[in-house]
Amino acid sequence: MTQAIAQQEAAGVAIPDRPGEEGAAPDVTAQDTTEVVPLRHPWTWAASAAVAIIALMVAASVSTNPGFRWPVVAEYMLDGQILTGLARTLGLTVAAMAIGLVLGTLLAVMRLSHNPLLSTMSWLYIWFFRSVPVLVQLIFWYNFGALYPTLSLGIPWGPSLYTADTNALITPIFAALAGLGLAQAAYTAEVIRAGIASVPRGQTRAAMALGMTPRLIFRRIIFPQAMRVIIPPVGNEVISMVKSTSLVSVIALAELLYTAQLIYSRTYETIPLLIVASLWYLIIVSVLSAGQHYLEHRYRQR
Q1: What element of type H or E holds 258?
Q2: Does the CA dihedral 66-67-70-75 come out positive or negative?
Q3: In the chain, at which residue ranges do the beta strands (DSSP E only) sit?
Q4: What Cα–Cα distance (Å) separates residue 29 from each residue in 25, 26, 32, 35, 297?
Q5: Cα dihedral 13/22/20/5 (nearest 10)
Q6: For the whole model, what pTM was predicted?
Q7: PANTHER family, from UniProt (predicted)?
Q8: Does some domain include residue 253?
Q9: Backbone angles phi, psi at 38, to 5 degrees
Q10: Is there a domain that residue 4 lies in?
C-alpha cells in the first residue's frame, strides 16, 4: 500500500489527509458535543419580577378591599333575576349571529357576483352598516315609530291590506335584533367573502373540467378550505356579539347588564353587581374561546 501511495505522489495525484493530522478536513459525521449556553437576558428577568410583584399587589388589594364585597357577589351569582338576564343575553347572541350569518352569506355571494347591480348593492350595505356605530343603530330602530307611525302592507299606489302601529311592532327585543343582526351581517359578509376568495380559482376550474356540479364543488372543494379562514374571525365575532348585547341596555331590554343595573339601583350595591355581570361575561367568553380553539384545530387537521 505504501508503494501505491508513493506511485501516486510521483504521478502528482493529491493524497487526502489522514484523520487527526494537521490540516485534515473535519469529520462532518462526528457528533458535536459543544455545550450551548443560552444568552442571559437580565432585563427579561427584571421585567418578570416587576410583573410578578404588581400581580401580587393587585391580588392582595382585590382580596382584602372591603369595597368589593365578595359575599354579596357570591349571593347574586346564581340569583334568579341575574340568570334570567343571562339567558336573554345568550338568546340575543344566538339570534343576532343567526341573522348575521344568513344575511352575511347572502351579501358575500352578492359581493362576489359578476352582476354589477348585486355587487354594488352589497358593497353599499356593507359600507353603511360598518360605518354607523351599533349603539346609534339600536337607538334608531327603537325610535323607528317617530319616522313611520304606522306600517302598511298592500298594493303599491293602491289600497292597504294591513296596517299596524309601528310602536306596537318595534318592541325592544325587535329593535335589539335589528340593530345587532343587521350590523353583524356587514362584518360577517366580509369574513365569508375573504374565506371564499382564499380558495385558488384553479381548483374550481379543474373541478368544473372534471364535470363536478357547482353544489359539489362548493361542498367538497370550496367549503372545507374556506372554513379554515372563516372560523377564527367568526369565532371572534361571536365573542364580540356577547359583549355587544350589553348595548341594548340603552333601550331598556333586561339582558345581563341591565338586570344588574336594575338590582343595584334598588340595593345601591353597584360594584358587587357589576362584578357579577363581569364574571358571567368572563365565563361565557372562556367557554366560547375553548369551542373556537377546538373547531380551529379540527379544520386545521383536514
Answers
A1: helix 256-267
A2: positive
A3: 150-154, 160-165
A4: 12, 9, 9, 18, 39
A5: 20
A6: 0.78
A7: L-CYSTINE TRANSPORT SYSTEM PERMEASE PROTEIN TCYL, MEMBRANE COMPONENT OF AMINO ACID ABC TRANSPORTER
A8: yes
A9: -65, 145
A10: no
Calpha distance 234→261 (Å, rounded): 30
Domain limits for position 229 = 82-151+161-301
In one-letter notation, the amino acid at residue 223 is F
Residue 6 lies in a domain: no
CA atoms within 13 A on the CB side of 94: 7
Q: Which residue has the cell 358571567?
A: 280
If pLDDT is split at 50, 70 and 90, which confidence band does 192 have? very high
Structural domains counted in the chain: 1
Measured between alpha carbons, how far is residue 77 from residues 127, 176, 221, 246, 263 in Å?
Answer: 41, 25, 47, 17, 12
The tens digit of pLDDT for each residue in 274-294 reads: 999 999 999 999 999 999 888
190 inside domain: yes
pLDDT > 70 fraction of the chain, expressed in percent and rounded: 87
**152 confidence band (pLDDT: 50, 70, 90):** confident
Q: Of 182, 89, 93, which Cα lies nearest the Cα of 136? A: 182
Query: What is the CATH number for 207?
Result: 1.10.3720.10
Per-residue pLDDT tens for 204-253?
888 888 888 888 888 888 888 888 888 889 999 999 999 999 999 999 89
